[in-house]
Amino acid sequence: MSTVDTPARLREAERFAREILPAASRTFALSVRLLRGELERSVRCAYLLCRIADTIEDDGATPAPEKARLLASFVATLDDKEAADAFPEQVAGISGESAHLRLLRNSDLVLALFRSLLPGSRERVAHWVREMAQGMASFALRHPRGLRIQTVEEYREYCYFVAGTVGCMLTELWREHGAVPSARYEALWARCTHFGEALQTVNILKDIAADAERENSIFLPEATLQAHGASHATLLDPAFLAASRAAVGEFIELAWKDLDEAFEYLLLLPRRAVTIRAFCVLPLLYAYATLRELTRTDAMLRPGGVVKISRGEVKSLMIAGLVALGSNALLRRLVASVRERPFAPLAGLAG
Q1: I need a labelling partner for 93 at 20 to 30 A (CA). Which of 11, 85, 101, 290 fits?
Q2: pTM for this model (two decimals)
Q3: Can you give the pLDDT at residue 1?
């Protein structure tokens, strides 16, 4: 078997990656489109590789040992073209959302794109995807009957593997592509895990019921729930709603702190790195708005409950975030407004 991807194969890989990204994550696709050139290719490919690992991890029907085996096989594809070409057959039994399953069925194309990245980018993406997948496998084996986080410390460890690694990878890619000077890099590195973990915590909080029902995963620590008179077993029980909501409140406070650290990460990015600042600002604004809504509801603790911001606010935040991008003072004012109330574009930056 050839170890070299043909030009036609690479063109097919590029087409597929551009086509599947909006289906796999509409929000992330909007941010990636703001990047340019080889950096955009690297980040797009990195996201799809992480989504492949996520899809394997999220499958509640696959036994833990098999998940760990598939994640180990996935790691092997980063260094072995034959393993990469054979991988779609290995994951044929995974269940999940249709777009994510299509991604798995064409994972060989994503890996062809990965092999075409510049050597430095390829090495850093491989390092962090490997770290993520191995961490996911360790948690699957630690909780073979479904993920049940026990302590805040374990929660932090989990968030590092599934999201903190992404913050690290992105920061190294910024440096690899010359977007941040060495003097600024150290300050960014000190906050980069917060960038990924803050977004992860908001996603976990808004999807508590969905994760428990569809993926057999509960991320709120048992110790925190028990401290308030609830437990994993009673998480969605209406009789324990107040107790579970109190436990969620602790993690909302944690999310506010992590988001503020992530916001400082954004402000540290050089103003000349416009596309990278644009890439970072949108998910942060959406996370602040979502967390604001989480403080006002208990829908995430009710079966089928949904917590999300309106399409109108999404569009308004996109415009306002890009307009404010060059001014840290304007960005601070925008975030302060979003924390308090749904964003109104005419009044949000003026007050």
Answers
A1: 11
A2: 0.93
A3: 43
